[in-house]
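Hi R.,

Here's the chain you asked about this morning:
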Amino acid sequence: MLIDGSKPAIKKLYFFIMKALFVVNPISGGLDKTPFLNHIDLVCSKYAIEYEIFKTTGENDDQKLQHALKSFRPDRLAAIGGDGTTLFCGVNVMEDKIPLGIIPFGSANGMATELNVNPTTELALTDFLLSQYYAHLDLILVNDQHYCLHIGDVGLNAAVVEGFTNDENRGMLTYAKHFINEYKSAEPFKVEIETDEGNITAKTFMLALANSRKYGTGVVLNHKGNPFDGKFEIGLVKNIEIDALVKAGLTKYFEELAEDYSGISISCTKAKMKLEKPMMLQLDGELIGKVDEIKAEIVPGAIKFITHGENPFLG
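And here is the predicted structure, written out as tokens:
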């Protein structure tokens, strides 16, 4: 106790000061992130955490982020955005194994929801800064040059993503508008699939590559999924009648219904898929372009992911 009433001096412990890099997608979710960035400043200043903010622009982002990583040398990195932002960050830190966390700020935060990331951004920030739990998260390598962390597909959903991407508005209502438009004109297409688990030829409304179970809406595509198990699933949606869509919606609350509506699900580590015509491919909400062949292979444990003791896959 200081009997003269003076306050003790506060000293920083310089033997270790955390350095955090926050990668922000300014347009994800159509949300203003300025208040949250101010919150980051308050928290990091309070606890003597050194930090930098990196904002994506859509121009040379990979090159710019690599420069930021080399110059700042962060101890951990946070993706502030949706699935596309998380994928972008994951690919850029996979070589150096810089731990990656997620702060959900997208229109549909599918991977964040799947991994039980706290949906309250302030609490997700606390988890990101404090947690010492790490897990090795898989990626899917697609056509030898692209990556998928959550879900990629061709067909109905990819058409919806294309319309959504080209729309000036964001949010779930905009997504729903494009889903209704594409649903009305959807037609099945033929796909030939070769995997290390066997071959199949089928007609489908959607061909999906899934590293997890659910879309950002909560609808279960792949009840077998586990993004830490060294496998991915190929999903074929063969029925989009109203009763199937109702069951799909209900899987958000009753996952066991997924087996009744989702068609075919194949677990594998690599696959080749041939489409009857060129179709738009989307990976984690990012448009790749039209393809008539898809080659996919799992990259096990590619990302050192910051998680917590309540991650449902790590039980």
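One quick note: The chain has nine helices and 14 strands.

Cheers,
M.
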